[in-house]
Amino acid sequence: MLTAQECRERAAQSLREAETVADPNARTTLQWFAKEWTSLAEHVERHASFRPLSPPPMKRPADLQARPYLVDAADILRQRLRLAQTEDEPSEPTSDTKTVT
Hints:
Helices cover 52% and strands 0% of the residues. By secondary structure, the chain is an all-alpha fold. Helix 1 (4-20) runs antiparallel to helix 2. The longest helix has 23 residues, at 24-46.
């Protein structure tokens, strides 16, 4: 979220650019930008006390809390979707598996 100071800096930058532009339409537009940035700075100052509080941090699922520094997303998805292979299911066909056509 922009602060009032940042808005004022952008307003000043717009005015500096307006002074260097030869085109009258561009100068007018940059001056309008400066006015709007100043207006926004004033609005931010007036309503500073009404800013919403940041949302509370989300709770991490237990499987993520166990390894906060390292998360293997594929393992977590397999576990949650119950796609983990059982011991009697081979992961790849073996050479003695016959293909039925």
